[in-house]
Amino acid sequence: MPYYNYDEFRKACGEDMQNVIWINPVPKDAKELFNLKNKQELLLFIYNDGLESLSFKNTKPWENNPRKDKPVFVDAYEFRSLGKLGYLAFFYNEAGKWIIKSFHLSENRNLSMEIAIKKALLGITEKDR
User: Fold this and answer.
1) Total structural domains in the chain?
2) Tens of pLDDT along 9-36?
3) Which positions ≥6 away from 33 have C-beta within 8 Å?
4) Is residue 1, in this structure, part of any structural domain at all?
């Protein structure tokens, strides 16, 4: 069961962008892995339901929480986009900000399927190899 309401997070990504923050390495991963060039593109991607087949994965305590006396929980989801299985993790802090902690490829992805989809998108056939 998620700790946070995903719909509230998604809504903030489109309607309250100044209260959504991304932390490293999210900017680099979003750009390199999903071609989302800046924070606004990422947030609008989330807001406009770009995370296909979204499924809750788990909730865990934030490992890098500087305040060990105040636990912070992180919700993680897997999703599909452009034939890739992605991973999104976020939390809400005491300052009233949503924090995108992770946005990268999932460790559970099927590399064979991902390669086949890339080839199909590029129009590569068996005879082209």
Assistant:
1) 1
2) 999 999 999 999 999 999 999 999 999 9
3) 84, 86, 104, 105
4) no
